[in-house]
Amino acid sequence: MHFGFQTVTEEERREKIYQVFENVAKKYDVMNDSMTLGIHRVWKDILVHKMNPCPGTLLLDVAGGTGDIAFRFINYVRSVRQRQLQRKLKHHQNLSWQEIFESYQKDEFNSLGDSQVVVCDINREMLKVGKQKAEHLGYSEGLSWVLGNAEELPFDDDKFDVYTIAFGIRNVTRIDLALQEAYRVLKPGGRFLCLEFSHVSNPLLSRLYDLYSFQVIPVLGEVIAGDWRSYQYLVESIRQFPPQEELKVMIEDAGFFKVDYENLNFGIVAIHSGFKL
Amino acid sequence: QARRARGRRGGRQQQPGSASGSGSGSGLGSGSDSGSGSGSGSARPQPPEPSLLRFLVCPLSKRPLRYEEATNELINEELGIAYPIIDGIPNMVPEAARMTRQKAPAEGSERP
């Protein structure tokens, strides 16, 4: 088994990865901004736009630790819901002001339209950070947090409309098991979405990317988080992770149909998508 | 809207543990906020979101769980194990579970 460029047993790998995220949890968001110059926010926005959830969607965000995808999901369905309500009101031409006011009141309690997101992560520290962020930013409705293992999810079959895993699948020890679990918990018709660092095929870009990854990122890790080793692991693990086509085959093996991927920034990041039919 | 949400949470805090009853996935009120600033070692155990209990099953056997308010745990009666809820977050990994019976549960609980 590999931990970055080292060779370790499965158990050692799980242990080491747990420690990496335990160490970086509090600085996770800051590091993401520094390493990617804020571009990770755009990648995550694109993921949620691609998902295009409608109110009433049930999302399971795995390895969702600090809540980035969950918050974006909530914002998205809230604004879709707003527009829905406004359109509804526009059609009721003959309502009195009292009636219009009352309908706003009634729907206020359903501003998410029954949408829900469950954030599941194996690392307690990351979940703590996520929960604190949620409280700080005022997210409470339709959001819950669970400590669980992507390879062995504590959820029943056929439950969720969408399953996302953003920058998490790379850290799973048995990716095949995680994909099988993803398939299991999705409803028929449900969608699997994976956002992850991938492979850059353009040779010049690849060299620049390598340079940046190995020379700059661990240094940033030391300066900002006081932990270059964790960030060394990060950049190494990206290189060890299967490239786009290989991941596509793994997803198909788990039973998903219409498996597809979209490269962002020339393959630095890719979004894989599949459906359970 | 965010501000209003905070206000409502504050109001409901008087009824810990009461299911929200309305059945919609709103998850308002019970459990997971620590308005007093997240203390270490919660003086009052935070129950999980009622909406979450609909989805959770035992990660090993995928069978339903029972919420035990006294110990703030999710119990799998069949296998005789209990998963703790810490700071309002259910700890659904087998490593964290404790056995509720003296004797070991049946072979079926062994991880493949």
TrEMBL record, chain A:
Query: Which pathway does the database say it acts in?
Result: Cofactor biosynthesis; ubiquinone biosynthesis
Q: What class of enzyme is it?
A: transferase
Q: Which domain of life is it from?
A: Eukaryota
Catalyzed reactions:
a 2-methoxy-6-(all-trans-polyprenyl)benzene-1,4-diol + S-adenosyl-L-methionine = a 5-methoxy-2-methyl-3-(all-trans-polyprenyl)benzene-1,4-diol + S-adenosyl-L-homocysteine + H(+)
**Entry annotated with the keyword Cell membrane:** no
Pfam family of the protein (one) = Ubie_methyltran
Q: Which SUPFAM superfamilies match?
A: S-adenosyl-L-methionine-dependent methyltransferases (SSF53335)
Binding of S-adenosyl-L-methionine, residues: T66, D121, N149, A150
Description of how the protein assembles with itself and partners = Component of a multi-subunit COQ enzyme complex, composed of at least COQ3, COQ4, COQ5, COQ6, COQ7 and COQ9. Interacts with PYURF; the interaction is direct, stabilizes COQ5 protein and associates PYURF with COQ enzyme complex.
- What family is this? Belongs to the class I-like SAM-binding methyltransferase superfamily. MenG/UbiE family.
Q: What is this protein called?
A: 2-methoxy-6-polyprenyl-1,4-benzoquinol methylase, mitochondrial
* Source organism per UniProt: Ficedula albicollis
Gene symbol here is COQ5
TrEMBL record, chain B:
Q: What is its main location?
A: mitochondrion
Key words, A-Z: Mitochondrion, Transit peptide
Gly residues compositional bias: what residue ranges?
20-40
The species is Ficedula albicollis
Biased composition of type Basic residues is found at: 1-11
Q: Where do the record's region annotations for Disordered lie?
A: 1-51
Coiled-coil stretches noted in the UniProt entry, renumbered to this chain? none
> What InterPro entries does the entry give?
Trm112-like
Offer one example of a GO biological process linked to this entry.
protein stabilization
* Homology family: Belongs to the PREY family.
A Gene Ontology cellular-component term: mitochondrion
- Name the chain's protein: Protein preY, mitochondrial
* Superkingdom, natural source: Eukaryota
Q: Which gene encodes it?
A: PYURF
